[in-house]
């Protein structure tokens, strides 16, 4: 069956299906019960599954993750909600020092099927601590899987795939796109959780990004086409591990690549991907891999976010620089 849903409702449907099919699945987070979460992703789930499976937690992120580690050791599959990206850092020690390492510490004898949902990124004009792009902190940490859907169908399926994983998954939800609608096929599974995907075919330049940036890349590709340049657009979907196959195949055809992200550029996911593509496809490249990113400053006040965040014009400028080599 196909439904036209915003990403927030697709996530809700994915969580609902996981709760229905596996009694070990529990949801935990601040205000996720009667309120349904700040972005209403869990709306109606406590009413239907009860407060023992959809748990309103105290305002204590470290405690939420620490409790989930104990629940996972007891055979449960906790799915946690961090209200905003900037609030995840009080739980950072629990995530990187404990959750990420326990399976390796026990030589695979103890698994940690914990999903941590984090609304992330800009475009909503929020205040400090409410618009961060922390993906590099987590992709740098062995033992964590990190994914980010860019559309409703992926949100529905990737949520269920993440919950089915036996390893901890950082599930980054682009908050700017919670209300973006798309077709969700609830019967035909999407790609595997860690597969990247070509979302637009092109021949001249490969554009790569994830989450909310995919929409911006598609806007840039449409504008480039009007100027006679054909851009291929790849949605990374999985940030750790990265599925390099489609990226390398594309770069070997186009000879050029531009990577775009909201996060600051220094020591970022884009840095790693640019280095890897240049190592593995060097002789196919007609120009260096170029990166477009947020600036290396703290996320600015709301009125300046339009300047800080990469837009289609900044991506097109990079496309032009690549073609000029």
Structural description of this entry:
With 325 residues, the chain is of the alpha/beta class. It is built from 12 helices and 14 strands. The strands form 3 sheets. A 7-stranded mixed sheet has the order 3-2-4-5-7-6-12, with helices on both faces. Strands 9-11-10-13-14 form a 5-stranded mixed sheet, with helices on both faces. The chain has a two-stranded antiparallel ribbon with strand order 1-8. The longest helix has 15 residues. It is globular.
Task: List the defining traits of the structure above.
alpha/beta, 7-stranded mixed beta sheet, 5-stranded mixed beta sheet, 12 helices, 21% strand
Low-confidence stretches are none
Shape, per Cα inertia axes? globular
Work out the number of β strands: 14
Rg value: 19 Å
Order of helices and strands: EHEHEHEHHEHEHEEEEHEEHEHEHH
Describe this structure in a few short sentences.
The protein is 36% helix and 21% strand.
Question: Secondary-structure map with pairings?
Answer:
Layout: E1 2-6, H1 7-21, E2 25-29, H2 45-49, E3 54-56, H3 61-73, E4 77-81, H4 92-99, H5 102-105, E5 115-120, H6 135-139, E6 145-147, H7 152-164, E7 169-174, E8 181-185, E9 197-200, E10 205-209, H8 213-226, E11 231-235, E12 238-240, H9 245-254, E13 257-264, H10 269-280, E14 290-294, H11 305-308, H12 312-324
Helix pairs in contact: 1-7, 3-4, 8-12
